[in-house]
């Protein structure tokens, strides 16, 4: 029998939609409320408001809506008046909640403190997952991280307590797994300060990665701006089977769309094939959608999601979602801006890489391709887990492969590591024997944290500069990302394929067709793995790692020492002086791919994420200078000497000289880290000119008072040389949709003019004029008071 609260919701919904109107007692309505999560019993899911907003917009647009549109438009601040045009207008939205990982939460909370507000306006959480380095195993690594990062953890804990933010302690797990287990639900709009926040789309939510300044807007109760996304439909037919996994869907899509093909769009999966994918499998697909530049990805609400909600203690949410299901699936006849169709029955296991996540290969081909390209075929390390693939099902399928090898007396030829996604997953796979099997085959179980996926890996088996291959079930494989070694060829694939390849020790092994030789000398073939998507028993929650914020945190003290090397209170950036930006020097003209890892490296630099001046010492140290083909070596235009990029930027700042960066395509792809925008602003940069930008980075630059501009003619990239000076003119007439003029002054005295485009709207222009979005927020607060 349905719970009383759900019966009340059903009755109210039915009566409100019928011809006759009946009175529903307020007590009955009150009991029908369902909490967003167990941790916030007084914050309720508001499907009624979602429904109301959707109906207003549907009437205005007079057409069927995609699922993405329903949830996005259902969170509009003013659905009756908001201008809506896919890919063009900026929407003002009211997200339901905010999530921050510890590396980005430091700067986000420092900015929130600067706002002067007493408490967050929406439910918010901090998750400690980025600062734990993989060395010798879970327990030891966690203990070491707590000691090394005590100052930062104390800051985040006390700041959370003071401002009403829930705090997940180190060891609790990776932010995206925690969100899926506790906070995501069908129809939610959640923003998170990590690019893989779209993981929550596996539970039918619009979950979007943003920079810390965007999170501050939402926590401050200010409508959040997002360019109205286009919608790319991916129709799935057929059924997953054999060695093919959910990961192969997104690996295939990445190969089709490339790293920038999803920019400005939501990827919406639909079709009969959806039902053959588990809820956590859908999350895997949405998670890695970040690698194609997508705003987010989403699946329609179905029985697999309902099953997962029930198993994670949220059957009441599933029951309520059932009542409003018509708003949690796309309308029949809705139109997509682009449609891709994939037959899951024909899809083969894939492996993507190296050095970019969109270089897709069938597993059956990778050995031959690697030999042809000169990539190392021997696998040094196999790594499974991370936020992308660390579910119970993932661990079970990997264990199923490992168990077969053990039965024939084999262990992994490659080093092998396992990263559980959460404390709940760790405890459950320990109880159910998966962890034991994975250890027996040669695996090392790491802490419940990001670890090697983000470069938190104290790798000892090779020297820097040594050419080698690793295979992972991660999502991102940029040069040097996992171990800071530019010669590491990293490939991404499913956990079960990683396990099989680690047992074989070579990229030349195809588990679908090839044989292994057991300890007895007999050949055998691995069978396709099969495992439960959810445990037969309830999940084991493991240790309690959550800190509730107190009801009143006003008396909580938050200390930031002025001598700290890890934390630094923020000073406001200078306002625009009302003049054109004249005679700027070029700090660097970047050649080729420039991700946020190139602009603001992670790994050992993570410890400075709360100290803007210290972390600015990594500015653009990974970017390749077109002038000499080297990283972290640029000409100082004032001294004519070559030196590190950060030192040169500091010299220009000291001399009062403004500077610009010239970039290539999809500049700033990858992580959501706003440090890649804060650092150039802090060191005196004013303009970033590129052929194109990744969405999150472009927004982050605007938020910090910089001008992200694009060449009206991409060929004009070739007209600018590192020794030139640039002037941006016409800023007094800066307006939405109006290009800006750039005058290029060459050393020989000649000059030429090019046009630059931008995507600023009126409020974003105000950020630039005020010096930053945070400065503008303070101006508005002062006016209102």
UniProtKB/TrEMBL annotation:
Function description: Catalyzes the isomerization of citrate to isocitrate via cis-aconitate.
Cofactor: [4Fe-4S] cluster
Main subcellular localisation: mitochondrion
Stated name of the protein: Aconitate hydratase, mitochondrial
Family statement: Belongs to the aconitase/IPM isomerase family.
Cellular compartments per GO CC: cytosol; mitochondrion
Keywords of the record: 4Fe-4S, Iron, Iron-sulfur, Lyase, Metal-binding, Mitochondrion, Transit peptide, Tricarboxylic acid cycle
GO molecular function, one term: 4 iron, 4 sulfur cluster binding
UniProt lineage: Eukaryota, Metazoa, Chordata, Craniata, Vertebrata
Aconitase/3-isopropylmalate dehydratase large subunit alpha/beta/alpha domain location: 69-505
Gene: ACO2
InterPro entries membership: Acnase/IPM_dHydase_lsu_aba_1/3, Acoase/IPM_deHydtase_lsu_aba, Aconitase/3IPM_dehydase_swvl, Aconitase/IPM_isomerase, Aconitase_4Fe-4S_BS, Aconitase_4Fe-4S_dom, Aconitase_dom2, Aconitase_mito-like
Keyword Mitochondrion set for record: yes
């Amino acid at each position: 029998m349905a719970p009383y609260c759900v019966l009340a919701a059903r009755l109210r919904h039915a009566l409100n939609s019928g011809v006759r109107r009946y009175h529903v007692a307020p007590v009955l309505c009150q009991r029908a409320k369902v909490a967003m999560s167990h941790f916030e019993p007084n914050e309720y899911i508001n499907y009624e408001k979602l429904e109301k907003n959707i109906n207003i917009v549907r009437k205005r647009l007079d057409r069927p809506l995609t699922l993405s549109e329903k949830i996005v438009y259902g969170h509009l601040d003013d659905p009756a008046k908001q201008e809506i045009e896919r890919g063009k207008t900026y929407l003002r939205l009211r997200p339901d909640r905010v999530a921050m990982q510890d590396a980005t939460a430091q700067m986000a909370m420092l900015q929130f403190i600067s706002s002067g507000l007493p408490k967050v306006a929406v439910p918010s959480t901090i998750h400690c997952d980025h600062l734990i380095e993989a060395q010798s195993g879970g327990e030891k690594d966690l203990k070491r991280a707590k000691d090394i990062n005590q100052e930062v953890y104390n800051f985040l804990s006390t700041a959370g307590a003071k401002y009403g933010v829930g705090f997940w302690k180190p060891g609790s797990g990776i932010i995206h797994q925690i969100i899926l287990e506790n906070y995501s639900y069908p129809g939610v709009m959640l923003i998170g300060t990590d690019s893989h926040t779209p993981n929550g789309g596996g539970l039918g939510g619009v979950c979007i990665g943003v920079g810390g300044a965007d999170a501050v807007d939402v926590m401050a109760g200010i409508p959040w701006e997002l360019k109205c996304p286009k919608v790319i439909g991916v129709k799935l037919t057929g059924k997953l089977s054999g060695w093919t996994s959910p990961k192969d869907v997104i690996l295939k899509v990445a190969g089709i769309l490339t790293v920038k093909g999803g920019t400005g769009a939501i990827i919406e999966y639909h079709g009969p094939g959806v039902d053959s994918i588990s809820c956590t499998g859908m999350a895997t697909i949405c998670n890695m959608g970040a690698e194609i530049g997508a705003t987010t990805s989403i699946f329609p609400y179905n029985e697999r999601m309902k099953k997962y909600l029930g198993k994670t203690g949220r059957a009441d949410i599933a029951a309520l979602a059932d009542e409003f299901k018509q708003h949690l699936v796309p309308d029949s006849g809705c139109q997509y801006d682009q449609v891709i169709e994939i037959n899951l029955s024909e899809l083969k296991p894939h492996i993507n890489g190296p050095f970019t996540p969109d270089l897709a290969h069938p597993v059956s081909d990778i050995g031959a391709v690697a030999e042809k390209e000169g990539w190392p075929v021997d696998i040094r390390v196999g790594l499974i887990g991370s936020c992308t693939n660390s579910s119970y099902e993932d661990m079970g399928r990997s264990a199923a492969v490992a168990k077969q090898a053990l039965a024939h007396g084999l262990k992994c030829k490659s080093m092998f590591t396992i990263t559980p996604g959460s404390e709940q997953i760790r405890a459950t796979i320990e109880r159910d024997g998966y962890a034991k099997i994975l250890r027996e085959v040669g695996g090392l179980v790491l802490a419940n944290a990001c670890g090697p996926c983000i470069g938190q890996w104290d790798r000892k088996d090779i020297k820097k500069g040594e050419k080698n291959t690793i295979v992972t079930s991660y999502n991102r494989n940029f040069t040097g990302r996992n171990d800071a070694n530019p010669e590491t060829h990293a490939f991404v694939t499913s956990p079960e394929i990683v396990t099989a390849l680690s047992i074989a020790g070579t990229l030349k092994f195809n588990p679908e067709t090839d044989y292994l030789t057991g300890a007895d000398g007999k050949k055998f073939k691995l069978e396709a793995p099969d495992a439960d998507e959810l445990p037969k028993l309830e999940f084991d929650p493991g240790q309690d790692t959550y800190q509730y914020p107190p009801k009143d945190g006003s008396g909580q003290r938050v200390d930031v020492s002025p001598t700290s090397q890890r934390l630094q209170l923020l000073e406001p950036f200078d306002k625009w002086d009302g003049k054109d930006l004249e005679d700027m020097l070029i700090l660097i003209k970047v050649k080729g791919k420039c991700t946020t890892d190139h602009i603001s490296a992670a790994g050992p630099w993570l410890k400075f994420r709360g100290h803007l001046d210290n972390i600015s010492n990594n500015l653009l140290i990974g970017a390749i200078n077109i002038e000499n083909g080297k990283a972290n070596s640029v000409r100082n235009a004032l001294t004519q000497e070559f030196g590190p990029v950060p030192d040169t930027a500091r010299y220009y700042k000291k001399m009062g000289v403004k500077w610009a960066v010239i970039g290539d395509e999809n500049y700033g792809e990858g992580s959501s880290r706003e440090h890649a925008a804060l650092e150039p602003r802090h060191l005196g940069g004013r303009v970033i000119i590129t052929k194109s930008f990744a969405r999150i980075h472009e927004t982050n630059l605007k938020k910090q008072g910089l001008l992200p501009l694009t060449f009206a003619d991409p060929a004009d990239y070739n007209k600018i040389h590192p020794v030139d000076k640039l002037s941006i003119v016409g800023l007094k007439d800066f307006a939405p949709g109006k290009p800006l003029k750039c005058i290029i002054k060459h050393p020989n005295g000649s000059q030429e003019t090019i046009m630059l485009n931008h995507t600023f709207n009126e409020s974003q222009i105000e950020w630039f004029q005020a010096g930053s979005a945070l400065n503008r927020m303070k101006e508005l607060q002062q006016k209102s008071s």
